[in-house]
Amino acid sequence: MTKFVLAYNKRTAELDVLERFGKSKDAVRRRMQLAETHVGSEWELAVLTSQDEDTLRSTHQRYFAASA
């Protein structure tokens, strides 16, 4: 399963970062790095596991609504 790291701006409803990782520790490390630059209550940072990006887009549609 692939790990995806997302930085989502709740105020603008836009996905700023979408990166994929093979290892959980790498994804968590990247999420922590993003926490240093994506500061404030408007940001939602997440590490999600999915079979592939298409499945992620289907199961977590709200992150991708602006790019649809």
Folded structure, characterized:
There is one protein chain. This protein is of the alpha+beta class. The protein has one domain. Helix content is 31%, strand content 35%. The chain has helices at 24-37, 53-59, and strands at 2-9, 14-21, 43-50. The chain has a 3-stranded antiparallel beta sheet. A hairpin with a 4-residue loop joins strand 1 (2-9) and strand 2. The mean pLDDT is 95.
Q: Which key features would you list for this structure?
A:
3 strands; 68 residues; flat; alpha+beta
Taken as a percent bin, the fraction of beta residues is: 35-45%
Strand tally: 3
Q: Give the distance, in angstroms, between the N- and C-terminal Cα atoms.
A: 24 Å
The figure for the number of domains is 1
Q: Determine Rg (CA atoms, Å).
A: 12 Å
Order of helices and strands: EEHEH
Count up the helices.
2
Shape label: flat
Outline the biggest β-sheet. 3 strands, antiparallel
Low-pLDDT segments: none
Order the strands across the largest sheet as they lie in space.
Answer: 2-1-3
Mean pLDDT: 95
- Proportion of helical residues: 25-40%
Structural class: alpha+beta
Q: What would you call the quaternary organization?
A: single chain
